[in-house]
Amino acid sequence: MVANAAEQGRRVKAVGAGHSFSGIARPEDVLLDLSPLRSLHHCDQDSGLVTVGAGMSLHNLSERLAQLGLAVSNLGDVDVQSVAGAISTGTHGTGAAHGGLATQVVGLEMVLADGTVTTCSRSERPYLWSAGRVGLGALGVITRVTLQAAPLFALRAEEGPMHLDELLARFDELTASFDHFEAYWFPHTRWTLAKCNTRLPLAEGLDRLPAWKQWRDDELLSNLVFGWGVEIGRRWPD
Fold first, then answer.
1. How are beta strands 49-53 and 40-44 bridged, if at all?
2. Strand 30-33 and strand 105-111: pairing?
3. 3-state class of 110 per DSSP?
4. How far is CA 113 from CA 10, 29, 51, in A?
5. Could you read off the pLDDT of 41-84 as tens digits, one per residue?
6. Contacts of residue 41, Cβ cutoff 8 Å, sequence gap at least 6
7. pLDDT exceeds cutoff 80 at 21
8. Torsion over CA: 80, 84, 85, 88 (sign)
9. pTM of the model
10. Distance between CA atoms of 169 and 179, rounded to whole angstroms?
C-alpha cells in the first residue's frame, strides 16, 4: 500500500489507537490501520528483549509480559495506545531515574516512503533508529518494535493533596525520594494532587485495592472530582 501510494503521489498516514490529542493521524489520502499487527514475535526472558507488532496495545503488552515475569519499565497513566503510536508521539511516564518509552526501544522495523522494509538499531542505521523512536510518522511506518523490558515489579502508591507552595519547595526532594513522582495542579487554586510511587519486589506481595476503592480513586476522585475542582477554581479563583 505504501509503495502504490508513492507511485501515485499520494500521502500515507498510519494510525494506532487514535489517542493522540492532535490531528497527527488525520487521513489525507491513505490511512493505514496498524491494529492487525499485534503479535508477540519474540521474547528472551533472560535478556528482557521483546519484539512485538506495532499495533499491539500497551495494556496487552503489559499483560503478555507479566505472564513471562517481565514489565515495561516506565509507562504513562493511559495504556490504550498502540506501541508504535505511543513511541511516535513521545509518550512518557515519570521518574528521574527512568526514561520514557522511547528510551526502551532497542530496534525498529519500518516501511519507508518508497515501500521498502528496513530495520534499525543503535548499531544498524543508528541515525534512523535515533530519530524514528519519536518520529511522528515522518520517517516511515513502524511495523515491529523491539523493547528492553524489565523484571516484573510491584508499585506502592501513595496519593494525597499537597499545597502548591510545599510541592514547589520540596520538588527536588520528592523526585529523588520516589521512583515515580507526579502531581496534578488544580488550576486557579494553590492545591495539587501528589502521586508518589515506589517500586517493590514482587516477593513482598501485593495488597491490591478493592474494586470499589479503585473506582473511587481512578474514576471518582482523579476524573470527576478533579474536573469539579478545576471548574470551581475557574469560577471562583483562589
1. antiparallel
2. unpaired
3. strand
4. 11, 14, 23
5. 999 999 999 999 999 999 999 999 999 999 999 998 888 999 99
6. 51, 52, 53, 144
7. no
8. positive
9. 0.84
10. 19
